[in-house]
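Standup notes, protein team

Yesterday: finished cleaning the Nilaparvata bakeri set.
Today: Ferredoxin structure.
Blockers: none.

Input for Ferredoxin:
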Amino acid sequence: ISTVKLVRAGLLHKNIAVNRYYPVRNLFQSSVLHHGEFEWTDPKSEDEVVNITFIDKDGKKIDIRGKVGDNVLFLAQRYGIEMEGACEASLACTTCHVYVEGEHFDILPSP
C-alpha cells in the first residue's frame, strides 16, 4: 500500500492510501462547490430582506429569508432545499423555475 496525492484541475487534492491492485487514475473526489458566494451572505439590513417560500415535491412550504439580488437556485442550495439546476444557473436550460402569482406581476419591476 502506498499513499498518492491526487491533483487534477477543479478537483479536491487528497491523499489516498491505495493498494497496488487498484489503479490510481480511477480514484478522485470532486470538491464541494459553493456557487454564488453572494447568496452565502446574509442581508446587511432589513431593507435588503426578501421573503421566499419554496414548496417541495411533497407540498411542504419552506420559508426562508434571502436578500435583494440573490440567485434563487443558489439560495435554495444554501438552505439545503432540493432544487435541480442542470446548468448551474447559466440560463442554458429550463430545470429551475420561479413561478410568480398573477397578482404580483403589476408590483414587480420589468426585468
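Follow-up from PR in the comments: Helices lie at 72-78.
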